Amino acid sequence: MPDSDLFWRKQRRLTLLLFILWLLLTFVMNWFAPELNELTVFEFPLGFYMGAQGLLIIYLAIIWYYNRRMRQLEAEYGRADE
Amino acid sequence: MFSLTRLQRYYLYYTGCFLAFVLALAVLEQHGMPPRWIGYAFLFFTISMYAVIGVASRTSDVSEYYVAGRRVPAFFNGMATGADWMSAASFIGLAGTLYLSGYQGLAFVIGWTGGFVLVALLLAPYLRRFGEYTIPDFLSARYGGNAIRIVAVVAAILASFVYVVAQIYGVGVITSRFVSLQFEIGVFVGLAGILVCSFLGGMRAVTWTQVAQYVILIVAYITPVAILSWNVTGNPVPQLVYGHVLKEVGRLEDKLFDMPAEVEVRKLYRERADLYAEKIMQLPNSLILEREQISSQINDLKASDTQMKDIVALEKLRREMPHDPDEARARWEESMYTALDRAKPPIHHAEAFPGQDEEQKLAARINFLALIFCLTVGTAALPHVLARYYTTPTVSQARESVFWSLLFILALYITAPAYAVFAKYEIFSHLVEIPIAKLPGWVAAWTKIGLVSIEDINRDGILQLAELSLNPDVIVLATPEIAGMPYVVSGLVAAGALAAALSTADGLLLTITSAVSHDIYYRIIRPDASTQFRLVISKSMLLVVAVLAATVAAQKPGSILSMVSWAFSIAGSAFFPALVLGIFWPRATRAGALAGMLVGLLLSIYYILRVEFDGIPLLGISGLHMAPWFYVHSTSAGVFGVFAGFVTIVVVSLLTKPEPATERFLSAIRQGKHGGGR
Hints:
Chain A is built from 3 helices and 2 strands. Chain A is mainly alpha-helical.
C-alpha cells in the first residue's frame, strides 16, 4: 500500500506544480500584458507575442513534460498499463 | 528511419489525392472552368469522400459505435479531436474577430488552447482509465445514483444542442455562398453530409472521417495566408514574419486614425447616434411625427408632377416603418448602437486592454481574463471533446493524444492572428482612403450578401476607415478575393470551412444521441435492453436530433455566435467542478456534487438571462435586465457559475457524511490496479 500511495502522491505533486505554472502564465502574466508590450521580441510587442504564439508553445511543452514524467513514474512503480 | 503504419499510409495517399484534386481544379480553372462548377466539384468531392469513409466504417457493435472500439491510436485521436474541436466558429470567425478586436481577440486563442492543459493534467487519463462510454457514466459511477446522471444529461444536451445548431447554420451559410444553393436546401445538404458518417458507423465512422476532415481544413486554412505572406514579405511562413507586418500595420494606424476626414466621419456618426437617442426618448410622438412627415412628402410629390418611381420609393419607406413604438424602439436602438460603434475611436491592433479612461481599461482587462477562464474551463468540460479520450487503446495513449490534439489545434490557432494582421495590412494599404468608385469587385459582391457595408456619410466620394464595416466572417471567406487569388483558393476555403462545421456537428450529434439512448434509455429506463435494440434507439435518436437541429438552424436564429460562447459557460459550470473534485477530492459526496452542478448551471443561465435579455416574451416576464457584476459580459457567465459550483460542492460535501465507496472507485482510476473498466 505505501508504494501505491507514493505513486499517487508523486503524480499529484507533479500535477499541482504544472497546474500552478499554467495558472501563473495564463492569468497573472496576461494581467500585465500592457507592461509586457513595452518589450519587443522578433519584432512583436511581447504581450501580443505571448498571447498569439508564446503561450501556446508553452502549453504544448507543459503537456509534453507531464507525459514524459508520467511515463517515468509508471515505469518506476511498475504501472505499465494494460 | 521510421516506418509508417497502415493507417498512416492510407491517410498519406488520401492527402496526396486531395492535393492532386486541388491542383487539377486549378489547372482546369486556367482553361476556363466556371467558378460555380469549381464550387460544386469541391462540395461533391469532399462529401463523397466522407461518405465512403462513413460507409466503410459502418458497425453494429456497441463498443465500436460509442467509443470506436477503443482502438484509435494517439496520433489519429489527436487529429480527430482537432477536427472535432475546431468548429465553423474557429475556422470562419476567429481570424475576423482578431481583425476587429486586435489584442482582445487573443482571449479566444489563449482560452481555446489553454483548456487542453487542463484536459491533460486533470481529466483525460482518469476518464480513460475509468473506461465507460459517456461523461454522465463517469459522474454517476463516481457519485452514485441516477439523479446526477439526469442532471449531467440535461447539461450535456443543452450545451451540445446550441452548439450543433450553430454548426448546421454555418453549413447553410457556406453552401449558399459558394455553390449558390438556397439557404434552407444548403442546411439539409449539410445534414446529409453529417448523417452519412455518424448514422452507419457511430463514433468509429466519425473518428475516421474527422481525421480526413482535419487534413482538408488545415490545408484550406493555411494556404491563403501563406500565399498572402509570400506576396507581402517574400516568405511563405506567415507565423514567422508577421511581426514585421504588424509593425507596418501600426505605422498605417498612426497615419490613418487622426486624419481630418476620419475624425469628421466619426463625429458624423456620433451625431447620428445622438439623433436616434433623442428619437427614442420622445417615443411614441417621434414615430407619429416621422410618419406624418413622410405622408406629407408623398402628398406633396403626388401634387407635383414628379416621377412615379420616387413616390413608390417613398411609399415603400412608409410601409417599412416600425408599426408600433416597441418595434420602433428596438430598431432605432439597433441603429443607434451601430452608429455609436462606428463613432468609437479605432484601437491599435497590438494594444492590450484599450480604453479611453482607467475604468474602461480595467473592464477590458477583467473581461479578457474572464473570457479566457470560461473558454479554458469550457474546453475541459464539453462532453463531445472529453468523450474522444475514451477511444484510445490505453491510458498512456490517452495522455499522448492530448498532446497531439493540442499540436494539431495549434496549427490553426497560431495562424489565425497572422491571418488577421495580413488581412488588416491589405485593407489598410489598398482599400482605405481610395475613391469609392474605384473599389475592387469583391466589395460589391460581399455587400450584396450583407457581410460588408460601406456608407459615404461625409459625401467626399472617398472610403474612410470608419465608413467601412466588415462582418467578422468575411475575413476568412473573402481573403482569397481580397488578395486577388484564383477562385480555386476560394473553393478550397469553402471546403475547409465545411469540413470544420461537419466534423464538429458529427461529434456533437453523437454526444447528444448517446446521452439519450445510452444514459437515459439504457441506464435508467430499460437496463435489460438488447444491444441490437440499443443501437436502433441510438440511430433513430440521431435522425430525430439532426432534423430538429436543422429545423432550428433553418430559422436563422440571430445571435448564434454568442450562443456558442454561452454553451462554454454552461458546460464549464455544470461539469468542471464535479469532474475535478470527483477525481482529486475523495471527500466530495453525491449530495455535494448534485447541489454544485445545479447551482453552477442555474447561476450561469440566470446571469446570461438577466444581463443579456430584458424579458422572455414567451413566459410573459419583463424588466429582467440587470447591471453586470464586475463589468463581466454575459459570454463569460461561467466565471460565476464555476466558482459557485466549486464552493457549493465543498460546503455541501462537508455537511454530508463521507461515502466509503468512493475510496475503491478512486484508487481504481488513480492507480489502474483494480481495473476500473475495460
